[in-house]
């Protein structure tokens, strides 16, 4: 063992059971709160509520599939090439950890200065908490931020870790060459693990499956551009579950949800008054179920806000971009998959020759498209990339006269009171600006 | 028209009663372990002083960290919204209002009508708030009221750490052991706190006139340090600790005006 301490099995079991019980309680509490905010919440949301439970239906499904011989490939970052995993008939599942209590366990291995998302994943592994991580036969670890880079080493005590190195400069030709080679190695590893060859036919159907998911995903986000028929928290949950649900079923349910929502647009049945301040959140990923405090605060605040879109790799960034294929040849398909993951990413881990203009332009596009009144820039302690980028984003937003508030927090429940006074003041300000 | 504002602070509760936007009375009590009861007490006392009865009050607005505990209030407003209103009311030329509470500090930008245009709040730490000065006065073993005048006698500046109340305290102890004169240590305490506050204000931008409210505004030592750091004079209203309650009462009057 390079990192993990020896903990007696009895203690491990006790801690795991206690965090698991809290997780299930928080999951149902969050859902109750979301229901309370919108009494006539869309009916299809019930499906997403159920699939959001980490210790439930989806865990059993994956376990059953594994018993029949299918392989499970976990990933902790949205750079993992899902199409390649699906084409080898393996199950892709995201293994990020949003459990506050697990982050405190992680403190036994790394200092508290480390980002809590990372500490929580370490803690989850220490006690075997995350069903998806435990069920994974291997975990794809992309080297994006410093935390993710070292996380792979730490988790390798217990899991086969497949490292993918992401180039830090996105827009140079050599980066693309390098990235393609990285994915080729990954493809080989997937084939070796599963014993299934990724054929052109299989890759094509995997790409098409994800393209359909992207279509449903975009349809949902487009609906959110208008007056609110769905609260941001509900949409965030839908988007987030795509990272662990069966993607075909998820697509079908999301289309059903959109049908329901379009009826509501037609009937002008709003989820909250149309003049509710429209907020966007960007920054550190927010992982279900514990780290739902900011979305809860925004949409339950007095005055109320509505989270019409976010710019987080845990929700609204996930399926936005489809793989664009010119010719359905193996080479072309593979290159298209590689490009989709690298070139469309708006992760702040990149810089570019033009200074990561991509991310800025993408943000500005969303601000306009979703008619945003104000931005909450959310950073957890230790999340250097987002924290360092803030000043630049603020300058740009200042020039556009869009208020932005920097909110820093931790994986803890104790600072909700402090956060609440800040969020309320921000929403009050947005309302006052709208009135003058 | 009579309105009331109640500021449910973490350390003390302040009540202000207005008649046609003119202050009639005000009252401060310590929050203690039963803030709800303390709030009732403060309210009764303010009413008694102003010689008004309950049913003459048209609207009560609560603000501050414990605003929800004032369950008899008709509405709530955030502290930043409240101090923006109080700022423009006290000094129409004020564009930046700095408010230092016991456990939170904030700076707001407002227009001449008291509309909240932008704001910043201190980071998740009490080192930039009133509690810091109290803790440091204890470490230095001087009365809080005497520390300000004492610091003005300092001949040169020493330095302490203000990123954390605990570390700050151990720095003060180090200076005591080095037998630095007390006035200089006192000044170092104010300078450290003013450094924290001014870097927060710089994030917002220093738009003159700058106004300071909250109990700390009564501390001459801190005011001198802050003016040095910001490079500008600061305006201080007559009862700076009541700014939140006053702003809330002004907001209450606005609400009554809107509903009429």
Give average pLDDT of chain B, whole number. Answer: 91
**How many DSSP-defined strands of chain B?**
10
Q: How many distinct helices of chain B?
A: 8
Indicate the structural class of chain B: alpha/beta
The domain count of chain B comes to 2
- Cross-sheet strand order for the largest sheet of chain A: 2-1-3-4
Q: So what's the overall shape of chain A?
A: globular
Name given to the CATH homologous superfamily of the largest domain in chain B = ATPase, nucleotide binding domain
Beta-strand percentage of chain A? 5-15%
What does this structure look like?
The complex is a heterodimer of chains A (436) and B (260). Chain A has 436 residues and is of the alpha/beta class. Chain A contains 17 helices and 8 strands. In chain A, 54% of the residues lie in helices and 10% in strands. The relative contact order of chain A is 0.12. Chain A is globular and about 65 Å long. Chain A starts with 8 loop residues before the first helix and ends with a helix. In chain A, the strands form 2 sheets. Chain A has a 4-stranded parallel β-sheet with strand order 2-1-3-4, with helices on both faces. Chain A has a 4-stranded parallel β-sheet with strand order 6-5-7-8, with helices on both faces. Chain A has one domain. In chain A, helix 4 links the parallel strand 1 and strand 2 (91-94). Chain B has 2 domains: 1-91 and 239-260, Nucleotidyltransferase, domain 5 (2-Layer Sandwich); 92-236, ATPase, nucleotide binding domain (Nucleotidyltransferase, domain 5, 2-Layer Sandwich). The model of chain B has no long low-confidence stretch (mean pLDDT 91). Chain B is globular and about 65 Å long. In chain B, strand 9, helix 7 (220-230) and strand 10 (234-235) form a beta-alpha-beta unit. In chain B, 43% of the residues lie in helices and 22% in strands. In chain B, the strands form 2 sheets. Chain B has a 5-stranded mixed β-sheet. In chain B, helix 6 crosses helix 7 (220-230). Chain B has 260 residues and is an alpha/beta fold.
